[in-house]
Design a protein that fits this description.
Two copies of one chain form a homodimer.
Chain A (H helix, E strand, L loop, with lengths): L1 E5 L4 H13 L3 E5 L7 H6 L7 E3 L5 E3 L1 H11 L10 H37 L5 H24 L10 H15 L9 H11 L5 H5 L17
Parallel strand pairs in A: 1-2
Antiparallel strand pairs in A: 1-3, 3-4
C-alpha cells in the first residue's frame, strides 16, 4: 500500500492523487505541513517539499515528476505519458508549464498570500500581489482556451498527465479565489468535465483548516 | 540536424548540451536571449524560456526535462535515465533537486545579480543576495559531498542525468564566482573528473559577453 505525504492545498500532491485515481491505485493520505520541517520528513526529503510517497517495504519516492513517471511506468492501466516520443515531449512540456510557470505566476503567490501568511505569519494578504496573480491567471486561462480550441485535451487527442497537472494547479487557485471564469468558455467546459470525474471528487470535498473556498468551488455547474 | 536555442550561461541548456555530448548527438547552437522576448521565440515557447530544440522537419521541443527525456528515449547510446523504476525515480528526484532547488537557491539569484542586472538594468549586484546565494551553495555542496561519499555517482553506481543536471548548475554558479570549493573534497573530485570529459570541454571554453569567470573556472586542476 502506498502512503502519500501531503497537505490538502499542495497542487503537486493533487497531481499525484489525480494520477493515482485515474490509474486505480490505492493509497492512504499522511498529513504533512512541509513548512514545519519535521525531522522525519526532512530526512525523507531534504528539500522539505510535498509530495513524498512511501510504501510498506521502505521505498521512498520524492518529487511529483519523479513519482508520476514511476507510477506511469509501473502501472499499465490508463497510460498518461504515452504515444509517440514527440507526443510525450508535448505532454511533459505542458506538465512543466503548469508545475512551474502557472505555479510561479498564480498558485505559488496565492498560497503564500492566502495560506502561509494566515497560518504562519498572522498577516493579511497583500492586495496588489493577489491582483497580479489573478491578472496572470487570466492570461493562463486564455492560453488554455487556445489549446482546448485546437485539441480535444490539453496535449492532444487523449487525456494525459498534462490535463492532471493543469487541473491540480487550477483547483488550488480556484479554492483560493484566484480564478475568474468569465469569458473562458473553453477552459470552463474542460474543467467542468474534469470536476465530475471520480478521481477528482475526493479532492474537491476536502477542506484546509481556517481557509474556505468560494461557493462555486465544488460545483460541477459553476 | 538538431538546433539548440540557448545562451552560454543558461544552466538548463547546459544540461541538454551535456546529454547530447554524452550520447554523441550532433547539434548546432542558436543564440537566444530569452529576456528579449523575440516574437519568433515566444511563438515557439510561450513561456519564453531556454532551451528550445528544433530539427529541420519542424519539430519543436520545449523545456529541458521534456527534451532530455525525448533524447534519452530516442537515442540508445549511453542511457542516462536507466535501471530499475526505483533507480529512475532517484535520478529524476535529483534532476528536480538541481533544476529547481539548487537553481532557486544559487544559480537563479547569481544570474539575476551578476548577469541580468549588468546586461539589462545597468545596476550593481546586491551584495547581501550574493552572500546568501554563496551560503546556500555551500549547503548544497555539503549534500553533494554526502552523496558522493555513499555512491560512485550522484544517483548510484552509474553516471546519469542527475550528474549532468548537477554539473550544469554548478558550472554556471562557478562561472559567476558563487562556489567556494574549500572543504568540499568529494564534490571537487567528482567535478574535476567531470571537467575533463569531452562533453564538458566546449562549454567551459565559452564566454558570456561582458562577464568573465574566475581563473580556476576552466582548469581541471583547481
Amino acid at each position: 500500500m502506498w502512503h502519500l505525504h501531503q497537505f490538502p492545498l499542495c497542487p503537486f500532491s493533487r497531481k499525484v492523487r489525480l494520477l493515482m485515481g485515474e490509474k486505480g491505485v490505492a493509497y492512504s493520505l499522511v498529513r504533512e505541513n512541509p513548512w514545519e520541517q519535521r525531522d522525519e520528513f526532512v530526512q525523507m526529503n531534504p528539500a522539505a517539499r510535498t509530495p513524498v510517497m512511501t510504501d510498506d517495504k521502505g521505498l521512498v519516492l520524492v518529487d511529483s515528476v519523479a513519482i508520476c513517471e514511476y507510477i506511469d511506468e509501473t502501472v499499465e492501466k490508463n497510460p498518461m505519458i504515452s504515444g509517440t516520443a514527440a507526443y510525450r515531449a508535448e505532454i511533459r512540456r505542458l506538465v512543466a508549464w503548469f508545475d512551474q510557470h502557472f505555479y510561479g505566476d498564480v498558485t505559488g503567490p496565492l498560497l503564500h498570500e492566502r495560506m502561509m501568511k494566515r497560518l504562519i505569519h498572522r498577516q493579511p494578504p497583500d492586495a496588489s500581489i493577489l491582483r497580479e496573480a489573478m491578472r496572470r491567471a487570466n492570461g493562463h486561462l486564455d492560453y488554455i482556451d487556445y489549446l482546448i480550441d485546437h485539441r480535444a485535451w490539453m496535449a492532444g487527442s487523449t487525456m494525459t498527465l498534462a490535463d492532471l497537472a493543469a487541473a491540480a494547479q487550477i483547483s488550488v487557485a480556484d479554492y483560493l479565489g484566484g480564478i475568474d471564469w468569465k469569458g473562458h468558455e473553453q477552459s470552463k467546459a474542460w474543467y467542468a468535465m474534469f470536476k465530475s470525474r471520480p478521481s477528482f471528487r475526493p479532492l474537491l470535498s476536502e477542506r484546509m483548516e481556517v481557509i474556505s473556498p468560494p461557493e462555486h468551488y465544488e460545483l460541477v455547474d459553476f
